[in-house]
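TL;DR need structure tokens for one chain.
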Amino acid sequence: MSRDKHLPLTETVYYILLALTEPAHGYLIMQKVEELSGGQVRMAAGTLYGAVENLLKLKFIQPVQSEDSRRKVYAITDKGREILQLDLERMIHMVEVTKPILG
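>> reply
TL;DR here they are.
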């Protein structure tokens, strides 16, 4: 079986998709990414919105209705969940084959 051409995800994209398992607007996405990464990943607004545009084109995320018309809210799609799961499985495999070698 061949690997999906979108893998591996970048660390930033991985955390954005993970953050969007619950709908969120831009600022909340940045906060969630920082929280999920334990402060290791911090994004500027430009970086986030560039990634969001790319993820929209790939159909990994989609805009959703928001009560606040001033904010764009996004959520992960089924396709996005699938790619997130595939990348998780890829990383688990890497850890499993590395542990016996490095201890």
